Amino acid sequence: MSAATVVHAPLGRPIARTATPQRHLAWLAGGLLFSFCVPFLLADRLQLPRDLYYGLYAASVIGLCAGWMRDTGQSLGALVSRRLGLALGLGLAAAAVCVLLVLRTEDATSHPGGLAFVGAIVWRGLVYGAADGLLLTAFPILVVLTAFSGSRLRRRRRGRAAIVALALAASLLMTATYHLGYSDFRSEKVRKPIAGDLIWAAPVLATANPVGAPIAHAAMHVTAVAHSYETEVFLPPH
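User: That's the sequence. What structure does it adopt?
Assistant: Structure tokens below.
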């Protein structure tokens, strides 16, 4: 592998790119396959208990992201420090929108109390939500931005806009393939998470920092656990 060359991302601080664009896009293709197979095999076919599934899913997502970073020479510190203040602010703003989305679209239901409820908040809300934010939004967007960070497209405004549009399209596709892994989303119902991805993707597209999407996703899932524990949209599988 050649020595790292420092180039500038379409948005945000410089990115050190040590792999070819084709290598990054190969990881994106693998991520799309992964995003379908994990829910399809573990939840739809094997029908694992929900909380066990969430643990395996989160571990798999971390493994995928860590593999891409290691293989292509990315630095976690560099990724999360890029426009960090703005990324946190936009992530919290997106989280507020997601909270309102859950409250306005889902009916309130009862939930367990005591330690069981606290555990659900942490496991089904924070852990599962953060994993969703990484896989569906942060990973595909950062892969595309990094793959094209040294291309000639960046020299023109329209080219930069095209890169951002491609990154968003990758995130929307990842969201679609993931949800199609669940049998109950193989219908018009899949439009709901795809539309929601426009909210989750905004902080990452604006900053090239991954932290905003997990914040927004976690807030949405925590709200779903607390407000509509048996929701058929925000906490698959069902």
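Strands lie at 5-8, 14-17.
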